[in-house]
Amino acid sequence: MTGYGYRGYGLSLVSELELPEYLPAPVADDPDIRISLDAGALDAWEGGAGAVGEFIPAPAGGHLLRISGVAVYYVRAGSEIHISVEPGADPGMVRLFTIGSAMGMALHQRGILVLHGATVARGGRARILVGDSGAGKSTLAARLGQAGCEVLGDDTMALFNAPEGGAGKWLWQGSRVFKLWEDSIEAMGVGVEGLIPLGNRSDKYYLPNPAPAAHAEADRGVELAEILVLEAADGAPRVEPLEGIRALQAVAVNTYRPEYVGLLGREAEHFRQCGELARDIPVSRLIRPWGVAQIEQTLELVLSRWDAEPAVRSPG
Fold first, then answer.
1. What is the pLDDT of residue 216?
2. Numbered ranges of CATH 3.40.50 in the chain
3. pTM, two decimal places
């Protein structure tokens, strides 16, 4: 199979489908994840068809997802994503579900803990912004990128154990694009002219990552310093730590597609991973006024948390 070479989440990817959302890399002979355009994915779906829009177990192993008008995705062993594109499908939507739902399933199949949040790094340390849908994760991350931080991802982040048996978790560059509402983009002073709409929607757009990690930094990875749970409330922006079971719950509820955990029968292992993460990494509430009007105060508060930290070593 010929294709494009990429790096994502510290893994080597080879894809027949062009995926500019990931960092380009040499085409690996034996990639961690291979993405192929394969009409057989549709045949596999028809052999075990289930609910459209939800992953189902495939009769021959792995899992199948059909998005009406877009594609069938067949994900196996955490190392293969087969895509059968439907006639007339929007290429942007095909890519959207490839780097989102399908890649998320592949990471879960590999036993990796995956959080649903935007990730930003500075000075060798990363913070993941999590919260309910519409909480402003991508908007704040994009604004932090404008302020000079490295943005490692908009929607999903895979967490790996520290190298060489060290403590903590490490992260690598994921997707390099944002999916933002028009008012959020305009509040950043960017505007939507020339941006590509998200599928056939006219109010949400792809915004190029204002500060993706450089190639060397993406290969090296960064240490996770904190998980910030975004919440809205009146008053000045503030950070309040979460401890014990509340920290564990915050991690578990912000897992990327937690239903995949049950589908894979990984509940016990996932609980252990969430508990380990909540034990080793600070989890805090980031409470700030709702909307984009007060984002500068929030920006200053988050940046100050990096300023108070010492430098960290590279994992290699």
1. 46
2. 114-307
3. 0.89
Query: What tokens does 280 get?
Result: 């080793």
SS (H, E, C) the chain: CCCEEEEECCEEEEECCCCCCCEECCCCCCCCEEEEECCHHHHHHHHCCCCCCCCEECCCCCEEEEECCCEEEEEECCCEEEEEECCCCCHHHHHHHHHHHHHHHHHHHCCCEEEECEEEEECCEEEEEECCCCCCHHHHHHHHHHCCCEEEECCEEEEEECHHHCCCEEECCCCCEEEEEHHHHHHCCCCCCCCEECCCCCCEEEEECCCECCHHHHHHCEEEEEEEEEEECCCCCEEEEECHHHHHHHHHHCECCCHHHHHCCCHHHHHHHHHHHHHHCCEEEEEECCCCCCHHHHHHHHHHHHHCCCCCCCCC
Q: Tell me what pLDDT residue 277 has.
A: 95
The pair of structure tokens assigned to 169 is 């978790």
Region for 189 from its dihedrals, namely left if φ exceeds 0, alpha if ψ lies in -120 to 50, beta otherwise: left
Which portions of the chain are predicted below pLDDT 70? 1, 47-51, 165-166, 180-181, 183-189, 199-202, 209-219, 291-293, 310-316
In the block, residue with structure tokens 């028809």: 46
CATH class of residue range 114-307: alpha beta
Instruction: Please report the pLDDT score of residue 294 as a whole number.
Output: 75
